[in-house]
Amino acid sequence: MNPVSCGFIGLGLIGGSIAKALKENHKQIKIYAYDINRNSLMAAHREGIADVITEEINETFSSCDIVFLCAPVSCNDDNLLRLVQFLPKDCILTDVGSVKTGIHRQIRTLSLEHLFIGGHPMTGSERYGYTNAKARLLENAYYILTPTETVSSEKLSFYKNLVSSMGAIPLVLSYEQHDYVTAAISHLPHVIAASLVNLVKDTDSREGIMKMIAAGGFKDITRIASSSSQMWQQICLTNTENISSLLNTYIDTLCRIKAQIDTRSEQEIYDFFNNARLYRDSFLEVSSGPIKKVFSIQVDIADEPGAIASIATMLALHGINIKNIGITHNRELEEGALRIEFYDERGMTDAITLLKNKRYGIYEKK
Known about the structure:
- This protein is α/β, with parallel strands linked by helices.
- The chain has 13 helices and twelve strands.
- The protein has a five-stranded parallel β-sheet with strand order 3-2-1-4-5, with helices on both faces. Strands 10-11-9-12 form a four-stranded antiparallel β-sheet, with helices on one face.
């Protein structure tokens, strides 16, 4: 790819991660950055991520080949109005918002359709801000592109290649399809996670017993409730129709399983969980995308000094590579105290054989 100059209007978690990924993979790219947070700008400049920083949206961006709108969805419209007069005539204009209808309508109003390719990296963290930005945040994540009908195929091809170069997986959708799909697999889960946390908060005892013993399962499905409250407020206010429609469907599902539990309908309750299990397990059979099959095992070990080192050394002496290793701190949903992840199935199989021969208790991670 030829060296390009990229402008960032907003340098938070996503904008900062894209900027870092671009710098990591294309050393000659020049990055211009604006953010309302001066500390973020200074940090990006100090780290060599942003070559030029500005505290105003001005002519700094007039020579950019690509301009990323990376502020919160509610701010992008205002930022775009301030940016229009400085946009190069043949640049690529994009955004990273998780709702696309509003920005596409604004682009149409401003007659910028020939420049615009909406973008949404399907990644994130419960943490936010530039200080938590990482180039690897984009690796193996779907990066949805919502081009307008009039943007050139050359621009779209160039942008798809740029996305791929950052380790992400470009996927082209219409903006209407994007907003419905993300409402189902991203926006609704955040609403549900927050509602579960609030349910425990509102029904916990005065001593906080629920909070005290909340373990693996609850923490896993509510982790995303720690995300930015402002961001999710704005998403609910901008993708309202899709979220509300899917909430109605979800509420119907909850009412149905509640009725089956109330009537102790054994087969229906079993089918409810089994159908979900089978469909969720099928995610691992998809050849591309961020959810990959994991090759890992749980190992029962004694709680004593040197126990982990003994296993790691044993595997290393037999030429078995470990991808990750760590203690399982609670066993609500886990068997075994030590979790070991391998790069491939052969490594996992060889480790199971070796450790079983040494009389360790092994549980294969499904």
